[in-house]
Amino acid sequence: MNRKSVRRLCLVPLCCFISLGCTVLRGGDPDAGPRRQARAAKAWLCYYGNDRDVLTANPLIELLVLDADELGPLTKEEKNKRLCLAYLSVGEAEDFRMYWQGIRNKSWVLGSNPDWAGDHLVDVRSKEWRRLVTDEVAPRLMAAGYDGFMLDTLDTAETLLQSDPVSFAGVKEAMAELVLTLRNRWPDAVILVNRGFDILPLITPQIDGVLVEGVRSTMDFKHGQSRMLTTDECIWIEKKLEAVQHAGLPVFALDYVVPPDPEQATAVYHRLQRLGYRPLISTPDLAHYDFPYVHTGP
């Protein structure tokens, strides 16, 4: 989503205190407050633009994922009892963020993401990167009035391990450590993650839902349009998401229909809904919040 394992998830018991490395969690109550509200939300929206009308355009929306650097701070009155989560990339550094000039030449900033100009993979084992995310970026987002985070680019850990499992040993655990540190700092904040299937067994009790792009219709960047998944691809992703649902987590399914086609968007939406997911149909730039570009519930 930037600004974006066949193994079944190993489910871990829900508890208030979990340790991974040196992180000991004081996990908040997932059945209370904003976390409960997030798990119950059906109609949601993901928007990375700066038009504040998004906050009032659709009164049925219960949860919004927003780019705080674009939209700016939010007041309680503006949120109007709806959850507003801030986008936060944890596995890639983005060259349009305010932190970029200070880290661009760091050894732990790796190659570029070929699908997203300006995004650079990060070796999340770097304590400096993790401190930047947990001690600087995340506190600023929470201070701006957001209710939590939508964590993107967790799959960077898997990408690095696939490229060189020896050189990048421990990167999966470091990614989990980062997520758990955020939970420790903000026990009652909402935390959604985008995919990160290989990380989920380490963080499942401490997150509130999984966002997944391309469950039925995904973006073909090479041809500049969306395509439907093959049967094999559908089987693979459904097995992953069955494990997520079995863990008691909601699946927020974000599919892309490009160019906009209301009839196809409606069909994909209902397919996702029948699978028990919370669907949203949009465009990959996530710069729209209205018809015909966006199709959402309830």
CATH architecture of the domain at 23-211: Alpha-Beta Barrel
Helix content: 25-40%
What overall geometry do the principal axes of the alpha carbons give?
Answer: globular
Main beta-sheet annotation = 8 strands, parallel
Briefly note the structural class of the backbone: alpha/beta
The SSE string, one letter per element, is EEHEEHHEEHEEHEHHEHEEEHEHE
Radius of gyration over alpha carbons?
A: 18 Å
CATH structural fold name of the domain at 23-211: TIM Barrel
Number of contiguous helices? 10
Q: Give me the side-by-side strand order of the main sheet.
A: 3-4-5-9-10-11-14-15
Count the E strands: 15
CATH superfamily of the domain at 23-211: Aldolase class I
Distance between the termini: 22 Å
Mean pLDDT: 90
Low-confidence stretches: 4-22
How large is the share of residues in beta strands? 15-25%
CATH class identity of the domain at 23-211 = Alpha Beta
Q: Can you characterise this structure?
A:
The two termini are 22 Å apart. A hairpin with a 4-residue loop joins strand 12 and strand 13. It is globular, with a radius of gyration of 18 Å. About 6% of the residues have low confidence. Helices cover 31% and strands 21% of the residues. It has a domain of 189 residues: TIM Barrel (Alpha-Beta Barrel). The relative contact order is 0.16. The protein has ten helices and 15 strands. The strands form four sheets. It has an eight-stranded parallel sheet. Strands 6-8-7 form a three-stranded antiparallel sheet, with no helix packed on it. The protein is α/β, with parallel strands linked by helices.
